[in-house]
């Protein structure tokens, strides 16, 4: 029976592997990247490294097969990464490939753009839902209630740390994930402005205190 436990530093390689194996709307994204670590650099590793208190993993008889990672205060986390995470990656992955580098796939180029121009959660969203998370499970754990258990455990941890609410972004094409979040009670969130919509579908929930 899979167990949910706190992240430890020896899990980091597993987080990178899961990020890639689930990076195409929950499916394997490895064919979209030459750089196998790129997705993990953005969506997994910095959470585990800088906010391990909000990093949970689920482990079965084989290995770590899923994670739920988050940031308690999104704006503080964004500033921290600007100081201590992105600069080294920006040097490692220049926007323009240097001589001798292999041709980049579209996935590599998109993530490298994000490394050089990190995204920020919209202000209207962070004000009401200050925390945020990423959750991914390998296919062998899906559809068996493990995602619900993992996310519920993360809810409890985040609320205990003082959060008033959290948000997440999901690709609008990822209908299984959207259905899962809605079944977990998350609300679809929309900007109060009339500006162009975000590329992500935002969902979230507030904690009662």
Describe this structure as you would to a colleague.
By secondary structure, the chain is α+β, with helices and mostly antiparallel strands. The chain has a single domain (3-206), classed as Gcn5-related N-acetyltransferase (GNAT) (Aminopeptidase, 3-Layer(aba) Sandwich). The chain contains nine helices and seven strands. The protein has helices spanning 12-21, 38-43, 45-50, 74-84, 86-92, 106-116, 123-128, 146-160, 175-183; strands at 3-6, 55-59, 64-71, 131-137, 165-170, 187-189, 201-206. The chain has a seven-stranded mixed β-sheet with strand order 1-2-3-4-5-7-6, sandwiched between helices. The longest helix has 15 residues, at 146-160. It is globular. The two termini are 33 Å apart.
Strand order of the largest sheet: 1-2-3-4-5-7-6
Helix residue percentage: 25-40%
Structural class: alpha+beta
Task: State the helix count.
Answer: 9
What characteristic shape results from the CA principal axes? globular
**H/E topology pattern:** EHHHEEHHHHEHEHEE
CATH class: Alpha Beta
* CATH fold label: Aminopeptidase
Largest sheet: 7 strands, mixed
Kindly report the average pLDDT value. 93
| Uncertain ranges | none
Number of domains: 1
* CATH H-level homologous superfamily name: Gcn5-related N-acetyltransferase (GNAT)
Rg over CA atoms, rounded to whole Å, is 17 Å
Count of distinct strands: 7
- End-to-end Cα distance: 33 Å
Beta-strand residue fraction: 15-25%
The appropriate CATH architecture is: 3-Layer(aba) Sandwich
Key features of this structure:
9 helices, Aminopeptidase, globular
């Amino acid at each position: 029976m899979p167990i949910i436990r706190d992240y430890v530093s020896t899990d980091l390689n597993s987080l990178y592997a899961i990020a890639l194996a689930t990076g195409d709307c929950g499916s394997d994204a490895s064919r979209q990247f030459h750089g196998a670590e790129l997705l993990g650099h953005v969506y997994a590793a910095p959470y585990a490294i800088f906010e391990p208190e909000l990093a949970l993993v689920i482990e079965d008889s084989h290995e770590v097969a899923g994670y739920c990672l988050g940031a308690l205060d999104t704006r503080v986390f964004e500033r921290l990464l600007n100081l201590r995470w992105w600069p080294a990656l920006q040097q490692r992955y220049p926007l323009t490939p240097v001589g001798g580098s292999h041709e980049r796939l579209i996935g590599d180029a998109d993530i490298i753009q994000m490394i050089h121009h990190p995204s920020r959660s919209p202000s209207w969203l962070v004000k009401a839902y200050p925390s945020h998370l990423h959750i991914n499970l390998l296919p062998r754990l899906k559809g068996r209630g493990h995602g619900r258990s993992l996310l519920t455990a993360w809810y409890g941890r985040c609320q205990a740390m003082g959060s008033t609410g959290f948000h997440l972004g999901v690709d609008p094409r990822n209908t299984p994930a959207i259905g899962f979040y809605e079944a977990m009670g998350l609300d679809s969130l929309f900007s109060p402005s009339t500006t162009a919509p975000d590329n992500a579908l935002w969902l979230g929930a507030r904690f009662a205190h």
